[in-house]
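dumping these here so i dont lose them again. two proteins, back to back, each one seq then structure tokens. dont judge the mess
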Amino acid sequence: MKAALAISSILAAGLLGLLAADVLLGGTQATPIAGTWRGGGHLLRVSGTLEGGFSVAAGESWTIIGCPINAGDVLSRYSPKGGTSYDANSLWTENENGVCSSSTRGPETVTVVLSGTSALSITGCGYAFCASMTRVGPAPTTTTKPTTTTKQTTTKPTTTTAPKKDTSPPTVQALTKGLTHPGSTARLRFRVSDDSGSARVRIALFQGGEKLTGTTSGWGPANGSTWWWDTSFSDTLVGPAYFCAAAEDKAGNKSKRSCAWIALLAPVEKVSNGCGGGGWDAIVKVQNYFGNTHTYQQSLGRSYKVNFAEACNLHDAGYGGHTVRDVINGGIVDHHAWSRPRVDRKFLGDMRTLCDRKIPASAKNAREKCYSTGGALSIGALALYNFVDKHGWRFFDADLTVPGIQKGGHRANFD
């Protein structure tokens, strides 16, 4: 079960720059609203001014939908648009099966009205923080120094230093996505940080090294908060799937690309075809060697047939790096990080499990042939394993981020 509520924009110190001075540029007197307030049943801290923009932070700790709000956490940031209208950015707090996460929402237009010096109302929110707030303690006062007449003096002209150029690129961390089904919509998450506090992100979805779709976000807070992209997966996709994200700040600095795997569950029949598998016919007589069904003789009048097709299907899926249901052992297997030797060893174990299911323990001679190299009528599990152990490297896709079959890559082809 998932619950969500918008109660804050970004964690403390994660906002874009706020004006906290009492006097704005040009000498205009700012309305004093900074200080401690109470609203929505909690103590709140206001920083900034009505004219220059302000933020509302938690003045104490509490919980909402089971997720902690700590004293000092910024709930929302408000930027003036004119009159009583403000742009509000806030953090959407979400509780999904007991796991709390948050990401930025906004901007949305809200109305902010100060009555006297002790009543501040924020209304019209869809997900930003809104409340009728009452000041706690006296309102701050602003003072200006009296004008004095001084003798005319000669001073050296002041020099100005050009602002330091921003050369630091943003950072992005794509977060691994759990089990996803073809034909569904999935939420892909990533974290973004930049010293400027603002960035935009390019994100793309890939299958087997080929780009399927992508998008570019608008400008948003870049302070380590979690962003997400909801995208649809066609029911024809089989994987292996992953997504990548890269960020850019307003100075034009670009981050390195960060990618994360998606466990896209593929129907095993779409990624394999029994013993032999796609491409195996490149080796002479492989299809005959890899027949699905083998017969093991116990005695002159008694023999047992074992079909290895399910083991071969899982083996093919492993060579292609796919995520499939394990019909032999139960559960789901995500092969994207498996080495070829690991896939081959599982193949041997799966075949021997099928031997056990079809040949009773009392038929020791037949079971041993099934386990080992076979007999006069067929070959056994060990012989099949020895074959793929020797020749399988030619057909194992070691790099799932490049289209086609790669002999080397992030998945080891050899121990």
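---- next one ----
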Amino acid sequence: MTTHQLSRRQFLATALASTVTIGSALSAQERAGEGANNRINLGVIGIGMMGRGHLQGFLGNRSVQVVAVCDVHRIRREDAVERVHRAYAQERKAGTYRGCAAYVDFRELLGRRDIDAVVIATPDHWHAIPAILACRARKDVYCEKPLSLTIAESRAMVQATRDNNIVFQTGSQQRTEFGGNFRRAVEYVRSGRIGRVRTIRVGVGGPAVRCDLPNQDTPDGVDWEMWNGPSPARAYSDVLCPRNIHTHFPAFRNYKEYAGGGLADMGAHHFDIAQWALDMDQSGPTEIHPPERGDTGLRFVYANGVEMFHGGPSGCTFEGTEGTIYVDRGALRSTPGTILQQPLGDRDFRLPDVGTNHRQNWLDCIRTRRRPVADVEIGARSAQVCQLGNIGYWLRRALRWDPQREEFIDNAEANRLRARENRTPWDRI
């Protein structure tokens, strides 16, 4: 059975199970923000660390109007509403504003026909279902990385995006921001400045593990059943869902029920840059070779012979026949140093100019209906590298992968791990 079949049987129909009637289809002009004041009406789903950062960024953008927020945590939800009201009150002579609605259930937000686009900044296990429902509601989508929890989910997200002509940006901000270091590294690698690429080393955290946290009583104001959602039932833990307004990234990222471990958390950023530099945005590796033990050292092999290792210094190290380039946030250097000192010429590879703000690139594309710099297919493929790595660590055996059919070759056990069964009521087919 192919991943596409798995998607429809085990995931896509989940979206159809929603009990909320989604608003009727909008025209491209309506979705491009031709509403009051010509602003794009925006809803934000998930108000944790990333969601709060996105909210503040959009509140400072006059082309956007935040009209709704959603979170299962009352304190964070109310704080978000107050942030919106305070920001927009400053624009009005009366000095007051009360136009932002708050929801616990994202389906109610998606049911509003006046919302043009949504930002999804939930934990990873809650990326796919809201994103697909948003696509079916004809809302353009900005979804945080890693794009999905499973391979089947990400393919379903791509399909829903294409079926509904959605502008879908994955939150892979390294493609636009951080001083342009990652873009410059990609341009130099693809221009052949280090010769033929032989190896890439990506230094990120380890694979996801099963959640074994102790049970705690659910605090007042937290809809824990909704937070857990499609994942297996378990009691509340403040490690997974902090109690108040938190200033750290919660450790749900470590556990396979909710995320892909450190391998997928920063891996979705750095493997994304590796894929970009190899011109593999529409493909991926063909072999996965895990170590016998330990949580680093897994080796990916591409059809062209390039090997990519999980392990090494933070960021990406590209090793070629004529030199190396190392790039990370705040770092870009080469060996020999003269590689980066020589400017690129007219005949070298250059990336298109998409600006230096990831959110703005998405908004610009909403108006033009072009695909953004981290389109859903790109996000799916980058997440897939992380998912393949996790499966390799979990099974501890060499695997062969067909990136076009998106299935393991002659390995039924590995193929079953491309998807998972969601918990009732998110498992309906």
